[in-house]
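Researcher: Quick one. two chains, 222 residues in total.
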Amino acid sequence: GQNIDQPTEMTATEGAIVQINCTYQTSGFNGLFWYQQHAGEAPTFLSYNVLDGLEEKGRFSSFLSRSKGYSYLLLKELQMKDSASYLCAVMDSNYQLIWGAGTKLIIKP
Amino acid sequence: IAGITQAPTSQILAAGRRMTLRCTQDMRHNAMYWYRQDLGLGLRLIHYSNTAGTTGKGEVPDGYSVSRANTDDFPLTLASAVPSQTSVYFCASSDSAGGAEAFFGQGTRLTVV
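Model:
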């Protein structure tokens, strides 16, 4: 079966750095997405990785290792507004997105 | 403002009733999707459409139907609602079926009693 694993919840301090991991086992691979979802709101796109390596976009970076079935989202200089759930999703061989359950990130002052 | 709109925002529905959730996008995206989101689970695909006139079944299609008569609209119908269909439903669209980011509507919170 297809499976996406990410931690259920993480806590970090304002101004710090946090890394959210995602491991996957899917039928084929056509890219990995990270989305942010604030409570009661729709998911919004953060990043897309299809090749191995690090993609940096401001305070957020995303890393992919296809051989290990592994990705992480790195958030730097954490702000209170970063409190949200972070969703990892993999596009499989049928171009369908398989979603993880999400990681709820709690930022403390 | 361009985007994707869902209606209604929330609904309480009696079991056995028929209900259509509406979804409209004005971005001229080819692909559209319906997901349900339940606590502790990832988004699960109900139905999708890669282009107007075509639809396909996702991971959890039972009890739901869709149509794609044109590019902009992608309604989701519950023929006879059951309590297990209580969920938050998200409609999404993307420019193509593969590799493109998906844009989500604001969601419909449906409670079946």
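Chain B touches chain A through 20 residues (CB under 8 Å).
Researcher: Thanks, that's what I needed.
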